[in-house]
């Protein structure tokens, strides 16, 4: 094909549209074939075990990695991931309707993270606190929970870490969400904005942009991104710092995008549940450790991983809340707890005198 010709003949717009329609029909046929196979998977699961596992994060991760490895062409890989996430989401919920609790309200970054992980076919329920997210999963009212755990610049969300101390839940997945702040409003122009609402962190993340473009406009803290967006929707002349999802869900105009002062920030969220994922081939393991306060003991603990060539991706200390100046250490390492090297390191750690170890879970490493 050269220019607007195919096989030496001119191509019209009608020809191109006919070609797209034919491909759309083929895609639809293939989706129905895939759905038929999914139905059979559900039948096999239903017949094979009383406690069938419907959501397998390691299987989903493998699908995305395989698609990315063979990807080529003009469609961005991020768009392909979103398409397949919705296909997988709809397929899973053909087998069984699955549910997710998340730190709400609707249109927060945690809500956006939950949609990124599970797609739009899962039933999602906003919760007022991180405690409530964990509780809904613990009592079995929902299948999974999503809670924030870390910001790449500001560090840990300590309440989520503390909740693991007494919870029987495990980490089933992680979600990485780029920090993208936008200015949203019912108005069409920056000059019409009289007040800006935003979460404390969002206002801090965008203060340089606000100083440069709207220096005299009042800034008001909101309890959440969603609350700020509601103010922008309901109050004349108001704008909000929020994500794109809030613009779509509340019918707000995008006055400015990427107004964050520092590029490259990410929020990390954890998926909590009850069923441990199997190895996916590229995993992380999270553990919680406490030990006696002796010189060099932390060095000894970390050395167990270094000796086996296991990379530690994160270490965070938190007060144990049992004794003054007593600490818990939260450690993330590369690899699955069933991998021989990781299993060996975890066993060596458990065998150290005075050590208490709790494996919080192994799950696919999220790089999408």
UniProtKB/TrEMBL annotation:
Q: Name the PROSITE patterns for this protein.
A: ACT, CHORISMATE_MUT_2, PREPHENATE_DEHYDR_2, PREPHENATE_DEHYDR_3
A Gene Ontology biological process annotation? L-phenylalanine biosynthetic process
EC id: 4.2.1.51, 5.4.99.5
Q: Name one Pfam family in it.
A: CM_2
Question: What does the record give as its pathway?
Answer: Amino-acid biosynthesis; L-phenylalanine biosynthesis; phenylpyruvate from prephenate: step 1/1; Metabolic intermediate biosynthesis; prephenate biosynthesis; prephenate from chorismate: step 1/1
> What GO MF annotations does this protein's record show?
chorismate mutase activity; prephenate dehydratase activity
UniProt domain Prephenate dehydratase: residue ranges: 99-274
Which residue intervals define the domain Chorismate mutase in the entry? 7-99
The places in or outside the cell where this protein is found are: Cytoplasm
InterPro entries linked to this entry: ACT-like_dom_sf, ACT_dom, Chor_mutase/pphenate_deHydtase, Chorismate_II_sf, CM_dom_sf, CM_II_prokaryot, G/b/e-P-prot_chorismate_mutase, Preph_deHydtase
Q: Which residues form a coiled coil?
A: none
- Predominant subcellular localization, coarse grouping: cytoplasm
As for what it does, the entry says:
Catalyzes the Claisen rearrangement of chorismate to prephenate and the decarboxylation/dehydration of prephenate to phenylpyruvate.
Protein name per the record: Bifunctional chorismate mutase/prephenate dehydratase
Upper lineage: Bacteria, Pseudomonadati, Pseudomonadota, Magnetococcia, Magnetococcales
